[in-house]
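User: My collaborator and I are trying to settle a disagreement about how two of our proteins should look. Neither of us wants to argue from intuition anymore, so we agreed to look at predicted structures for both before our next call. Could you fold the first one, then the second, and keep them clearly separated?

Assistant: That sounds like a sensible way to settle it. I'll keep them separate. The first protein:
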Amino acid sequence: MSMEPLTDLPRQERGRWRAQHLSLVIGAAITLGIIAIALLSVVWTPHDPNPTPLPIAERLKPPAGAHWFGTDLYGRDVLSMIMVGARNSILVALVAVGIGVGIGVPLGLFAAARRGWLDDVIMRVNDLVFAFPALLLAIMITALLGPGAINAIIAIGIFNIPVFARVTRGAALSLWTREYVLAARVAGKGSALISIEHILPNVANILVVQATIQFSLGILAEAALSYVGLGTQPPMSSWGRMLSESQTMFAFAPHVAIFPGLAIVITVLGLNLLGDGLRDMLDPRLRRERSTA
């Protein structure tokens, strides 16, 4: 099946494409919806997520017309807080993934190009970082640096570096024996130029899929750090802190915990579906299997 634009396909072919890439379509729709909500929160929310003074008389109201998702212990609108929390979660995860890509990808390309003892040193440092669970490593770093969104970004970003370094190196090693790479070396191109011009474009599809996965893990990590008080700090809204503040009120005000929990679940689900869909679409072996099916 050709990779021509979806709008250029006949109606029957478009339907077949959507059926084959249902995971991609659903994941993209959910992800774009969450991003749209986050962008909307920059200019508008139904209520002030951090009103001053706090409307204590409005506290713990169930979902109703004025407050679609109800109010929390302090009378704040839960929907408005979730919208702002989406913006903060996406920002933290996006910058953390950017750190992983910006440092990990060059390290992986360098290790694959140089081999030898430098490759061994880089991979052993990666193994050292991987020896710690992701959340535990993030908690250790934020505990040392102090709580806050910036330190959460640093912590999550540090864990992303060896992930992208390992993925890039593994994919690049298999390409250094290809004919076009050997031809480039015969033509006098150096390792750095070959890595940029020939290796990186051919591993980009793998990196896009990995970035989507790490993005969803970054949102989970930010929520977990905020839950234990090491992530986004008040007065900024955070899904994880909303869950932490509502855990003792679930019996008589379940909406305060249900809605931020659903926001995390839906966002991570959408990103995972998007990652699976991108992998299926970008993997040439899977494309060939579908074309012969």
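The second protein, kept apart from the first:
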Amino acid sequence: MRMYAPWERAFKKVYTPFEHFLHAQTTTGLILMGTTIIALIIANSPFYEIYQHIIHTKIEFDIGSLQIKNSLSHWINDGLMAIFFFMIGLEIKREILVGELSNIKVAILPILAAIGGMIVPALIFMGINSGTIGASGWGIPMATDIAFAISALVLLGRRVSPALVTFLVALAIVDDLGAVVVIALFYTSQIHFDFLLLAGGMFLIMVSFNRFGIHAILPYFIVGIFMWFFMLESGIHATIAGVIAAFAIPSKPKIPPIDLTQQTKNLLEEYDSYPVATDHTMHEQQKAILQNIKDRIDAVSSPATRLEQELHLPVSLIVIPLFALANAGIHINFASIAHVILEPVSLGIIVGLIGGKILGIAGVSFVAIKTGLAKLPQGSSMSQIFGVAALGGIGFTMSIFVADLAFVGNSELIFQAKIGILSASLLAGALGFIWLRFIAKPA
């Protein structure tokens, strides 16, 4: 008899794509939490210097006359995280085409809430850091970590309505899109337009593949690698290539779903027409029929859907843990931690992620609902929206990513930012969970 972890048991009988997405995000959040704790333990142990040596080890690749030489942490942040951003792109595309963002009447509340949840934290950070060297970090408290936030909400079980979970997912997706735009527009120091044009050319090739009905993933992968390289050389952060590439992946199936049933019935009838062998082995033609059925099942699912489902596991088990191990390993001097938290950068992030997200998300939601622009999610209350807004203050993955871009080369400000992000994410997660678990009541 198989033993199920609590989050697995909750999803054991769930089959819809959206609920599989929630399951994957919950698992990612729990793995991310574990690897973050491990990174913090290593960074505050006698192994800290070994840890630093490993993540700063230089890895070099030569492509003709071009040379790429970066540290291991840089390869993780610019290379592996491109896969993470590719998956974010697929999620954004799905939400826009068939998800909650496809219906403007349903989408208006999470869209407005997400915009408020990005603008208010950025303004608070700027207010605290105006005129200082840390002012460029205004994008850090704008982000919400979708995996951590959804994990906290899903683990509350029946205490929150499915519509409230959907609200948070849509909000987080819009937030991710906003973070991608901010990274592309505001955290690019120098643009080499020749490489940018080459990257654009690669994207057009991928779009052409889509238009010509190419559903095999390999051609997109090969061209996508070149696109990533050209984006890296252009000066725009290479992970943006992942998001852009996702929009070129076909979202329509090769075979219309309506045709699958009859075709499968015909193939199964042909399969049954062969006599059963005495040793119960299959006829060679039966094996070919089964492969044909499998190919048709794959064809009725779009490449975008297959990739999103297939990438969740490697992203959850490899990409995100490696990112956490490389970036969350902060050596903390507990004697001076109070002083660090009161630094403008740390304080701006903490106040922005907690107070800013609550004011931005809950405040804008309240105004939108009271003015009739939007409606509360079914079975939810404004008190629960407040709890969700608090969970929106869990910045972590994207916030750390933006911090490294905002303060590149300034280890002291990056340290202050990471202390602020960890502190704010912990406090926001605890506040949101406790509020929804013990205080907020459903409608």
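Some points you might bring to the call about the second protein. Strands lie at 58-63, 66-71. The CA atoms of residues 362 and 386 lie 5 Å apart.
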